[in-house]
Recover the amino acids of this structure.
């Protein structure tokens, strides 16, 4: 917060590079024990997207209709764990992934394009979901995928941002910056 406004004033190109690096680098948080329990129970597999290993998870019996979960920025698949028991009891399978540079997936930075590609590749592997449940940035990724032809017939979108300028303004406020 101290450095960024000074870079904007005295070294705008450097401020721009720093902004881009910070903006596309998600924060990482530790996995609480309750999430680790679900990770241990999961059937795990990988996808490779733009050279990054994407961690995927599934719970429940193969062949059942599945619900796909898409987490938000700085999130991870197991944050949805409170939804899982009811879905499993109602004979759904659950599929989720840690987005690029999130959770247990590889990479340090991510973009919406990489996220959407991971979603696309997961859907190619798993087939059409009964429903997608998405939170925040995951909702934006899901809507982008739908607009790019992904077959998602039902989407539950929780607290997704809708105005790009506000996202950037909020981030600039966090780093004490102004419009570059």
């Amino acid at each position: 917060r101290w450095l960024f406004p000074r870079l904007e004033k005295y070294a705008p190109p450097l401020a721009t590079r720093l902004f881009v690096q910070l903006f596309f680098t998600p924060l990482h948080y530790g996995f609480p024990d309750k999430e680790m329990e679900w990770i241990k129970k999961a059937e795990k597999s990988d996808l490779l997207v733009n050279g990054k290993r994407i961690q995927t998870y599934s719970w429940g019996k193969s062949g059942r209709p599945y619900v796909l979960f898409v987490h938000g920025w700085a999130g991870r698949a197991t944050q949805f764990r409170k939804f899982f028991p009811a879905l499993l009891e109602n004979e759904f399978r659950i599929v989720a992934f840690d987005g690029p540079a999130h959770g247990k997936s590889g990479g340090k930075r991510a973009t919406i394009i990489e996220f959407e590609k991971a979603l696309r590749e997961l859907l190619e592997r798993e087939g059409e979901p009964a429903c997608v449940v998405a939170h925040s940035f995951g909702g934006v990724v899901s809507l982008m995928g739908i607009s790019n032809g992904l077959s998602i017939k039902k989407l539950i979108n929780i607290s997704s941002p809708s105005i790009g300028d506000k996202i950037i303004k909020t981030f600039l406020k966090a780093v004490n910056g102004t419009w570059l």
Remarks:
- The beta strands are 43-49, 52-59, 66-70, 93-97, 131-135, 155-158.
